[in-house]
From TrEMBL:
This is methylisocitrate lyase. Mg(2+) binds at residue 137. One of its GO terms (molecular function) is metal ion binding. It catalyses: (2S,3R)-3-hydroxybutane-1,2,3-tricarboxylate = pyruvate + succinate. Can also use Mn(2+) ion.
Amino acid sequence: MPELKISMQDEQRAFEADVAAHLKRPYTLQTVAALRTSLPTPSAVSSAQAIKLWNQLHEHNKAGTCELTFSTTDRGPALPGIDHADYPWDTVPKVVSNIFKSQLWHDQRQRQYRLRHPTEERDGLENWDYLAPIVADGDMGFGSLTSTMKMAREFVDAGVAMIHIDDLAIGMKKFTVGQGRTIVPTQEYLDRLTAVRMQFDVMGAETLLLCRCDTDHAKFITSVVDEQDHEYVQGATKKVEPLQKCLREAQAEEAVASKEELVAYNAELSKQKFTSLSGRREFASKTVGKAVFFDWELSRLAMGQYMLKSCVKGIVERAIAAAPLGDVTWACMDSPNWKDILEFLSEVRKVYPERLFAFGYTGDFDFAKAGFSDAQVKSLHLDLAKLGVVWQVQPIWSLQGLNLVTEQFSKMWQEEGIAGYLKSVQGPALSQKPMTDGFEKLSYCGGYLADAFFETVAGESIVEKGKAANFQRH
């Protein structure tokens, strides 16, 4: 918890100028105004936290450092087990609200305690920044665009600073690492981001949007309606039984061509940004001098997904397309492949030189298998920070960390009883400054704040003597 000194006016002006320089809306200010209610919608808290986070991330970007964070210690969302994102859409906003209220309480009791003392004594008192900006997982929006907008509104009302929205398919999520990840078409993903951005604008909120792309190592896509995705959709190059009937025999293969023919084919494709399947088939037929068979319907799964060949190029294209709608970019990766990470960051920054990035470490990253030495793992967060990855998260803490500690405590309690608790938990907790539980410290547990309520009702001053002012009725 850092100690921050903020000039809100200067930060607001800088923030608005920075946002205006890179955020583009596919709708007009008149449209936003028409969508608002007659009464102004309060979003000052979320905006203030967003501006605070924005400035922190940009300071990190300038200094080549990063914000290291871990997941919330509220384990409620993890109780169902493997993450299928099948919990109610308002679950995470409610968690954010609870966390933010606890932050406000600590900020309130610390502020009141400090103001009980003369100015010259406050330098020696604790002055922590308890209002750390909250970054929350919006998953895939939980339904239609209107559902996504409602979720975004709940986040703003809860006091969130930034949310991230991914491109995964609703109802098809299997945890977050491998296991048949299915994504939606590029335009559907962009529509989700636009819905969130529009809701923020309608509310007049400066809340930040983190564009999270799960395309890396995705194996399936829900639809082939978007030409931007055609390059990566796989299919059968000969007539075979549909995959649903004969999975092993109907494997997707690429058309056979010589090296020279392949070079000519790629050169033809490079002349335009995106080429549809029909266009690709036409180019391939001209290149090899005969009709080319390709059917992506034959390789579809029982649930309807099309097979997808993911690569860094595909992630880069989605990230660049999404960048104008959001503030930070995140490519969710299954493994810590340094070559892929470096390629992704550098390619996006060729288009957006000052782009801010996020990175998530999962609980089963095998750094040794990926070729990292112990020294490289130790400096990884700093190496990423120098490339613009200013927000780095270990989201599996609430599963691995708390479960590990719980198991250790349970074993200790069974073997050693209260003696083990005194030695391993209570003693170390009470010896820290501030104490971990804080119940013996009135300034930390809110004892002085409770006194202040009673004193205020009784008409007594709760601030430094001689500095109080009474409210007068008019």
